Amino acid sequence: MTTWTEFAAAAPRISEIFARRHSATGNLCMLATLRSDGFPRISPLEPRLFEGRLWLVGMPGTTKFKDLARDPRFCLHTATADPQVTEGDAKLWGTVHDVRDPALHQRWATALYDETGFDLRGQEFDTFYEADIVGGSSVEVGDGHLDITVWKPGEPERVVRKH
């Protein structure tokens, strides 16, 4: 399993772009899951970085979380409305597993409240998905070129430059 902390150490360029774009959009990303009929589903999500791990947590009972319960594979894309991608762009993919730890859930809810004012303290969570990151990529636009950075576990980041 690759946690956020491990990913950030192994893929600093991609993780920096992801973290910057994630923050710039108010934590909004687009989550890709697989529907029960096998077709992809794209849904908005506000993933959270907490205690060195990436969490995909949200409103219970939604189809995106039913998808993940059935098939834990996902892709997470930083939201952008800029066709020129001047601030960069990043994608992560992997699998999730449900973490059943009420003390962790409450620490997370307290941190969420402290950061945003959104109060989930004291609530129980149906699912609490931690991301196991198995790959990532980012794009950056330079002077007349596009740099695509790719990472897989056990390998260094690799940059492909397109002119």
Task: Give a description of the structure.
The chain has 163 residues and is α+β, with helices and mostly antiparallel strands. The protein has a single domain (4-162), classed as Pnp Oxidase, Chain A, CATH 2.30.110. The chain is 26% helix and 37% strand. It contains four helices and nine strands; from the N terminus they run ααββββαββαβββ. The protein has helices spanning 4-10, 12-24, 63-70, 102-116, and strands spanning 29-34, 40-45, 48-50, 53-56, 73-78, 89-98, 129-142, 145-151, 158-162. Strands 1, 2, 3, 4, 5, 6, 7, 8 and 9 form a nine-stranded antiparallel β-sheet that branches. It is globular and about 50 Å long. The mean pLDDT is 95.
Task: Provide a brief overview of the structure.
The protein has 163 residues and is of the alpha+beta class.
CATH class: Mainly Beta
Mean model confidence by pLDDT: 95
Task: Work out the radius of gyration.
Answer: 16 Å
Question: What structural class is derived from the secondary structure elements?
Answer: alpha+beta
The biggest sheet amounts to: 9 strands, antiparallel
Q: What is the percent of helical residues?
A: 25-40%
- Please state roughly what percent of the residues sit in beta strands, choosing from under 5%, 5-15%, 15-25%, 25-35%, 35-45% or over 45%: 35-45%
CATH fold call: Pnp Oxidase, Chain A
What is the string of SSEs from the N terminus onward? HHEEEEHEEHEEE
Low-confidence stretches: none
Give the count of helical stretches.
4
E-strand count: 9
Shape: globular
Alpha carbon gap, first and last residue: 35 Å
Task: Tell me what the CATH architecture is.
Answer: Roll
The fourth-level CATH homologous superfamily is Electron Transport, Fmn-binding Protein, Chain A
How many domains make up the 3D coordinates? 1
